[in-house]
Write a sequence for this structure.
């Protein structure tokens, strides 16, 4: 039984990290990219892809957190790993809200998309800076 949990943890963690990195990369490109790539047709395509990565990140994050709490980590505020998990949840909620706004936005203005991607990028960057600070 422990081997199944170990493999489940490893696979979930791999998918979590890959989807996080892919989303972070997409948000970086659209935050600092040229105005040419911010056309509505291109942005909408990548928003759907980024939303898929955000959903994979959330699903695997929930699975990882449930496995983490099964081993006796009941109070997430008691140690730095739990605190960083809470910060990640907060950052994820911010990104989920902003990407949902970006998906329903119909204006097509490049500046607005750039600002929305910027909020998502800097939210994730801030979360990972806090996570590194708490866990080292």
């Amino acid at each position: 039984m422990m081997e199944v949990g170990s493999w489940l943890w490893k696979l979930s963690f791999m998918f979590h990290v890959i989807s996080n990195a892919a989303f972070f990369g997409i948000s970086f490109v659209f935050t600092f990219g040229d105005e040419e790539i911010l056309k509505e047709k291109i942005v909408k395509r990548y928003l759907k892809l980024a939303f898929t990565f955000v959903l994979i990140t959330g699903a695997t994050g929930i699975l990882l957190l449930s496995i983490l709490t099964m081993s006796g980590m009941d109070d997430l505020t008691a140690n730095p790993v739990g605190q960083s998990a809470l910060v990640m949840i907060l950052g994820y909620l911010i990104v989920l809200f902003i990407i949902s706004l970006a998906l329903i936005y119909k204006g097509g203005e490049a500046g607005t998309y750039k600002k929305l991607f910027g909020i998502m990028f800097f939210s994730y960057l801030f979360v990972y800076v806090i996570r590194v600070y708490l866990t080292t």
Observations:
- The radius of gyration is 16 Å.
- The mean pLDDT is 88.
